[in-house]
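Bug #2210: token dump truncated for Aldo/keto reductase?
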Amino acid sequence: MATSTRTLGATSPLTVSALGLGCMGMSEFYGTGDEQSGIDTIRRAIDLGVTFLDTADMYGPFINEELVGRAIAGRRDEVQLATKFGNVRDQDGARLGIDGSPDYVRKACDASLRRLGVDHIDLYYQHRVDRSVPIEETVGAMAGLVEDGKVGHLGLSEASAATIRRAHAVHPITALQTEYSLFTRDLEDEVRPTLLELGIGLVSYSPLGRGILTGAITSESSLELSDSRRTAYFPRFQGEALEANLALVENVAELAAQKGCTAGQLALAWVLAQGADIVPIPGTKRVRYLEENAGALDVRLSGQELAALEAAVPRGSVVGERYGDMNSIDR
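Reproduced locally. Full output below:
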């Protein structure tokens, strides 16, 4: 397997592994979590050179940061650690809204540092934009964390082009994290050109379309009963939409068979091929899927192969919104 790095951001650059690891599913949302399996997966990732780890305070809630902290104990210097604030939840998991107020920014960072068991966070994101607080105030508080040495670099998640510009004018934004895959390409219109213009990296979450592009999901019944993808929160996994989207996955699987790789590896290779400033962070809680994902770094795609992939999944052909409720997405 090829081990390689990429650099996020031009003004405030952060070098990370070319493929990251999303840790969310180890604690919540995609079926039953298994802490030991998650820890084993993170440690195997570090061994493989997949050292860019992504978590957030709201995952669990709170317990995912603790899990990541336990997994990297004694190996802090080997990883690039990213976490997020802003999606507020209580201990019971209830969602309490979005908070980007300066006071909350500081409190959330201190709490994340405690749970992670570290003295600094490499990349600290605002998880969702708080429309009730000017982005300048939120980023100003985040910049204070950089001055205090608690945070190395700043990021935004699911921010619009206009918000990104305003934020970057306050303090260099190193990366935007947003959903990007063969199944989700809407950022190509305005957000992607803005990132390229300003020299901001792109961290692609759900680069496998929440797992559907691996081919492992064959019907709603192939998901655990506790899996949130079975709910209306994820329309692409419901009824006729799922059937239509699985037909697109079959197209990808056919091309992958011709290439001699898995469908998931081909989908990740497509994201990696969209620019050297893009780092996908596929999530998994199992070592075998991590190892499969890491194999995507060895898949090289020609212009003809990229065109065939995009013809197999034409932009706009995916049925259903990304989320059942898109109100929290800054557009």
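Output looks complete on our side. Residues 298 and 312 are 22 Å apart (CA to CA). Marking as cannot-reproduce; reopen if the truncation happens again.
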